[in-house]
Design goal:
Blueprint (H helix, E strand, L loop, with lengths): L1 E4 L2 E3 L2 E3 L4 E2 L3 E2 L4 E3 L2 E4 L3 E4 L7 H12 L6 E3 L5 H4 L2 H7 L4 E4 L1 H11 L6 E3 L5 E3 L4 E6 L9 E5 L4 E3 L16 H13 L3 H11 L6 E3 L10 H12 L5 E8 L5 H15 L5 E5 L5 H10 E11 L2 E2 L1 H12 L5 E8 L6 H8 L6 E4 L3 E3 L5 H14 L5 E3 L5 E4 L5 E3 L19 E4 L1
Parallel strand pairs: 8-9, 9-10, 10-11, 15-16, 17-18, 17-19, 19-21, 21-22, 21-23
Antiparallel strand pairs: 1-2, 2-7, 3-6, 4-5, 7-8, 12-13, 13-14, 14-15, 19-20, 22-24, 25-26, 25-27
């Protein structure tokens, strides 16, 4: 438990036993499941915590409230790491009123299959007075689930931001925010840049002194730094100058090309060069740096007439998270019928503003003199003399009801939103 200011408390829990968040992201420094309390004439608890943390969470709540009973549980997000203990809290405080969005209450029924005695449905712009403190609710669909909302408390000027501005790592572990926040963002929220931009525009109209996310530390200093990074990330703009190299190598010949490329980039004055062995390094770290830098190199072998599995999985993750607006160089290797360039370009064909650098380094088994020259040309291209292939730009259409984004120049005839089932007339083109 931590007092943030008069009447506002942190009652979240840190989990140091977890090894993989969402069953896939390594979290060596644990994970924070954040929850907050405002004590006023009415008492509000903000969000639940992961199922394994109930006892400590309840202990923190009782440390703040003593014999007092909470009036409201504000539910911003129904993902189980934030909702698992909702009904257990209701068992402890049976008169508590659950406050959330329509879709959240629908999910609540799907998870628990129990009737809710007291509930308060809130929509965009609705207000809830606790006494001196007043909450305003703001819809944030697909940041990163469709039911998500955030809330703003006007007295303390606090934005309760749900998963927005979250990061990997326990609440009681101090480390640089940006690295683990970036890995968290692009792993979990990154696909939904348009929706994050919509939320940032709403937040720009608020006088925010503090951001209370559902993961990671409370942010109460230099908020412009954090908001600026979220703006860059959600626009899919490169954050830093540099080159990121991602490779797989079976017998060392592709690795030899990567070693040579890295050395020549550094000798030529590249500001930053990072590299990842996709078979051995943490993929979520690799995805993070693919979004951090504006220029990447994909080096791999032809494998079963496709590309090596670790490279295939990596590219799939990039595409799934809406990878765009980057320059890509390719190093391909194959002893017969090399197919890497064709497969990679086909995989990115629907991605926005992907520019392929020429030439492709084409290795037949092991490097030859022509390959050394090709690497020199790639170095020049990566450092500024870039020949690019422009891919067709595709339009985006956003559902005004739930925030779902469809990519395509036109909406198909008879199209309906796959999330909220509203018709094409409820979509607008994203400029």
């Amino acid at each position: 438990m931590k007092k943030l200011e008069e009447s506002l408390y942190y009652v979240g829990v840190s989990d140091h036993s977890i090894d993989l968040f969402e069953g896939q992201y390594p979290v060596p420094n644990g994970m924070a499941y954040n929850s907050y309390i405002i004590v006023d004439k009415k008492i509000a608890i903000f969000d639940s915590v992961d199922a394994v943390c109930f006892d400590e969470w309840l202990k923190n709540i009782k440390e703040v409230l003593g014999d007092k009973k909470p009036d409201y549980l504000i539910i911003h997000h129904m993902e189980p790491d934030h909702s698992a203990n909702i009904m257990r809290l209701v068992e402890v405080y049976p008169d508590i009123t659950l406050v959330s969005s329509f879709l959240a209450f629908k999910m609540l029924d799907q998870y628990f299959h129990q009737p809710v005695k007291n509930k308060l449905l809130v929509n965009e712009g609705d207000k809830l007075s606790l006494g001196e403190h007043e909450l305003t609710f703001i819809a944030a669909p697909m940041v990163h689930w469709p039911e998500v909302m955030v809330s703003y408390e006007s007295k303390t000027k606090t934005l309760f931001s749900a998963d927005g501005f979250g990061k990997f790592g326990a609440f009681d572990y101090e480390e640089d925010w940006a690295c683990e926040a970036r890995r968290y963002y692009f792993g979990i929220v990154g696909k939904f840049g348009v929706q994050v931009q919509a939320l940032l525009k709403k937040a720009a109209n608020l006088d925010i002194k503090r951001i209370c996310p559902l993961h990671g530390p409370v942010l109460d200093k230099d908020l412009g730094y954090y908001i600026n990074l979220y703006d860059i990330w959600s626009k899919y703009e490169p954050e830093a100058e540099g080159v990121a190299i991602f490779y797989t190598s079976v017998y060392g010949h592709t690795l030899a090309a990567v070693d040579e490329l890295e050395a020549k980039l550094k000798k030529a004055g590249a500001k930053k060069v990072v590299r990842f062995d996709l078979a051995r390094d943490d993929e979520s770290e690799a995805v993070e740096d693919a979004f951090k830098y504006g220029k990447i190199v994909l080096a791999t072998t032809t494998y079963s007439m496709s590309i090596f599995p670790f490279m295939n999985n990596f590219i799939n993750h990039l595409i799934e998270h809406n990878y765009q607006n980057r320059d890509i160089a390719i190093i391909e290797n194959g002893s017969w019928a090399p197919n890497v360039e064709k497969v990679i370009k086909e995989k990115f064909k629907d991605s926005k503003d992907i520019r392929f650098i020429s030439p492709v380094v084409k290795i037949l088994s092991s490097m030859n003199e022509e390959n050394h020259k090709q690497i020199d040309e790639v170095v020049d291209a990566l450092l500024g003399k870039v020949k690019k292939v422009e891919e067709e730009k595709k339009s985006k259409w956003v559902c005004k009801i739930c925030g779902y984004v469809y990519e395509g120049n036109e909406l198909p005839e008879g199209f309906t939103c796959p999330i909220c089932k509203h018709p094409a007339s409820d979509f607008e083109k994203v400029e």
